[in-house]
Specification:
six-stranded antiparallel β-barrel; Thrombin, subunit H; Pdz3 Domain
């Protein structure tokens, strides 16, 4: 017998109407149960997903616990995730203070801003700015000479203060680019000077000053000591040469940093920031600072020789060559019958050279029996003397040589 029968599991007996009239006969009505099948399949899928998620999570937890438990940077109570920090408002970790933090806090208040003022037809204007270091609590400040050079008035602004002080000129050694000024104030924070002879290449160097003026007052930069015992000579547009004995550092030193502090990790001043070799020389990271040992000797001489003629004088000062009273340049032997020395271009009529009979076009060939061939040598030699000292000079003039004495 052929199996023409199909199995129907969902069937029921009921009376139905074929033509809209009642029918008493019995027949079979087949009901479609696909909705129940779909619901059953949905719940089976949900169950499968839940079972898979639970088993996957358990497997992942086991792997993490066994393989990564000993890694040094695992997240835990002391290292919460970003989500946990937001949920628990966990504060950012407080780091311990490093050497630069401490130096900034302790030395920063001893570094001041200095402004160079001049009078013009339109009134007073700024002729530049720089920095200085307080070394006595009653207002004595050391800075670079070039910061105050030519000023008719010098003002000082203390760190973290808007008060402006007028400064008085105490003294300077222009050939070493060091000057001392004073403001009327008391109980000021004082910088501690170190011993620059102990500084080594590679030591940490921290520069504090006011680059580009008051807007960036108290700026701190850091680097290392790149070289010690550097000696460089800078000639300005007038032909004046200034020689510096300096440290070289890669700590950023910019205009306005001049006269500021170069500090070691112990918070001791090891140098006075002075100049930078910059873009005009196609160089970066070459800053220079006068050693504090040399600056200290100059400060002692200035403080020891300050008298009534300088006390109370405005902080304007002479040009570097004015310690002898000339403006000069290296003599050109081909133009002076082979004579080497310092060619005198101009004379200050109020200073020693003029009073000793030296004239423009003369050539200084010897000072105190020491031969002089360059302006650099002349300034180097004169730096060993103080104002008021008298030195003997040998002068070449139109083929003749004579001796004279110059009071500095």
């Amino acid at each position: 017998m052929n199996n023409d029968f199909k199995e129907y599991r969902d069937a029921s007996w009921e009376h139905v109407s074929r033509d809209g009239h009642s029918y008493d006969g019995a027949t079979i009505k087949f009901r479609n149960n696909s909705r129940r099948v779909r619901i059953s399949g949905f719940f089976k899928g949900i169950a499968f997903v839940v079972i898979a998620a639970v088993s996957g999570g358990a497997t992942a937890a086991y792997i993490i616990d066994t393989r990564y438990a000993n890694m040094p940077y695992n997240y835990g109570p002391n290292n919460p995730s970003l989500f946990e920090q937001k949920q628990n408002n966990t504060p950012t970790a407080v780091l311990p203070k490093n050497a630069i933090n401490k130096v900034s806090e302790n030395v920063g208040p001893t570094v001041v801003g200095i402004s160079n003022k001049v009078e013009t037809f339109f009134g007073e204007k700024s002729n530049g700015s720089g920095s200085g270091i307080i070394f006595k609590e009653d207002g004595y400040i050391v800075t670079n000479y070039h910061v105050i050079e030519g000023a008719e008035r010098v003002t000082v602004k203390l760190a973290n203060s808007n008060k402006i002080f007028n400064a008085k000129f105490i003294g300077a050694e222009p050939t070493r680019d060091i000057a001392v000024i004073k403001i009327e104030a008391e109980k000021l924070p004082v910088a501690r000077f170190g011993d620059s002879s102990n500084v080594k290449v590679g030591d940490v160097a921290i520069a504090i000053g006011n680059p580009l003026g008051d807007e960036f007052a108290g700026s701190v930069t850091a680097g290392i000591i790149s070289a010690v015992n550097r000696k460089i000579s800078i000639q300005d547009r007038y032909g004046k040469v200034t020689t510096y004995k300096v440290f070289q550092t890669d700590a950023a030193i910019n205009p306005g940093n001049s006269g500021g502090a170069l500090v070691n990790e112990a918070g001791e001043i090891i140098g006075i920031n002075s100049l930078k070799v910059g873009a005009s020389y196609n160089a970066e990271g070459m800053g220079f600072a006068i050693t504090i040992n040399e600056a200290s000797e100059i400060i002692k001489r200035v403080m020891g020789t300050a008298d009534n003629k300088t006390q109370g004088k405005d902080a304007s000062a002479q040009s570097p060559a004015d310690i002898i009273g000339i403006t000069g340049r290296n003599a050109i032997p081909e133009e002076a019958n082979g004579v080497r020395g310092v060619y005198v271009e101009s004379i200050n009529p109020n200073l020693g050279a003029a009073q000793a009979g030296i004239r423009p076009s003369d050539i200084i060939v010897e000072i105190e029996k020491v031969k002089i061939e360059t302006m650099d040598q002349l300034l180097e030699l004169l730096s060993k003397y103080q104002a008021g000292d008298t030195v003997s000079c040998k002068i070449w003039r139109s083929g003749k040589v004579f001796q004279t004495k110059v009071t500095l």
